[in-house]
Amino acid sequence: MTTGLVGLALLMALVTYPSRAIPLLAPGFDRLPPRALEYLRLVGPAVLASIAAAQIFVAPGPDGGAPTFHVGIEWLAVGVCVASVAWRRNLLLGIVLAVLIVAGARALGLAGA
């Protein structure tokens, strides 16, 4: 296991923190129209979903060729994540369940790395 991307993750956390801290730092943020507040609340999950879709449903082709459509255990994990988030309104729970499904399937040899 490599830790090469940990630094990148920390850098991205620092870069994206200001946009996530706006509600804490901007006076009167709670007086925005409800539509604007809802939009800002949903930006994070929308970005996360688009990144997940790009990483899960498309795989590199043979020998690094053109990307191909991919079907695997990840689809089940995404479905469970979406269902649990819709049911419990808890994104962290959904992500943890999805990670556990994929990790378990890979540990049992049911899915490739």
Element order: H for helix, E for strand: HHEEHH
Q: Assign a percent range to the helix content.
A: 55-70%
Side by side, the strands of the main sheet go: 1-2
From the helix content, strand content and strand pairing, which structural class follows? Answer: mainly alpha
Shape: globular
Head-to-tail CA distance between termini: 12 Å
From the alpha carbons, calculate the radius of gyration and give it in angstroms: 18 Å
Low-pLDDT parts are none
Our estimate of the beta-strand percent is: under 5%
Number of strands: 2
Largest sheet: 2 strands, antiparallel
The number of helical elements comes to 4
Architecture overview:
The structure is a single chain. The protein is mostly helical. The chain has 4 helices and 2 strands. It has helices spanning about 5-25, 35-55, 75-90, 90-105; strands at about 60, 70. Strands 1-2 form a two-stranded antiparallel sheet. Helix 3 runs antiparallel to helix 4 (about 90-105). It is globular. The chain starts with 5 loop residues before the first helix and ends in a 6-residue tail after the last helix.
Give descriptors for this structure.
single chain, 113 residues, mainly alpha, 4 helices, 4% strand, globular
Q: Which SSEs are present, and which pair or pack?
A:
Blueprint: H1 6-25, H2 34-56, E1 58-59, E2 68-69, H3 73-88, H4 91-107
Helix pairs in contact: 3-4
